[in-house]
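hey can u check if this looks right to u? its 294 residues, i copy pasted from the old doc so theres a chance i mangled smth
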Amino acid sequence: MRKEAPEERELPAYGEEVFAFAHPAQTDRLDALAGSCDPATTGDLARWDLPADARCLEIGAGAGTLALWLARRHPEGEVTATDTDLRFLTGLRHPALRVLRHDVRTDGFPPGTFDLVVARSVLCHLPERAALPGRMASWLKPGGRLYIEDPSFFPASSSPDPVVRRLGTAVTTTLATTLGSDVSAWARSFPAPLRGLGLVEVGMRVHCPTLTATNAAGRAWALSIADLLPAMARTGVLAEADGAEALTHLRRPGFVDTAHAMVAMWGVRPPAQRPDRTTHRPKQTAQQPGQGPA
């Protein structure tokens, strides 16, 4: 029997081996990620005047903090929080919120269902990422908005800290090797992936969170690297002892840096055009005063 070449092997899905959902530290990591990302994301979404009864979809909702924020903001509407594994969403409670197992690559929704579709830190981890914005845009109602946000580690390459530079490269390489992720060029290309989809008002925003030893972004980064250390060692990207030493460096008092950016892009499905009800009547010839019809 012919052995499968390494490049032909199907990569494990996010949450199976890398960032394994069953790992006890995942709850803390997801909470730290939400604490770091939610203020910028909700700041973007809050600027949009969505209907009070808006139907919203969050793809890959993780711990569900963003979906819960949307449900509280649109209590007359419906917010659907999806993920391929629902263990972190089962405790969410709100009358406007429903939780659904869903894989954005293979599972769909009827066209024109949602006023808002959101995906944060999802598409970067899916090898099929290039085709997904168009798929997601088809689920929007006329006037509905698509919002995609993903990380890019390009700031790490210019860090004055050699440990941060080395870890940035190690994270980017390891995620690409183990998951097929792109946390480098994909988000750096925004908003180009939305061009050509027929969307209007296309825009983008970049947020570079400051990392410290104690803030949410720093904790999320340290917890993510700790999770990746076995894969880094297994693939030869970074020896485990070097990785442990680097984590100590990140946790030292006074540590501060910027290692990654959160890049968001958005667009609007054009509102449906109203039919032109103007009736075109034959042009009449002006008559002279006192002259009757011919």
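The longest helix spans residues 26-46.
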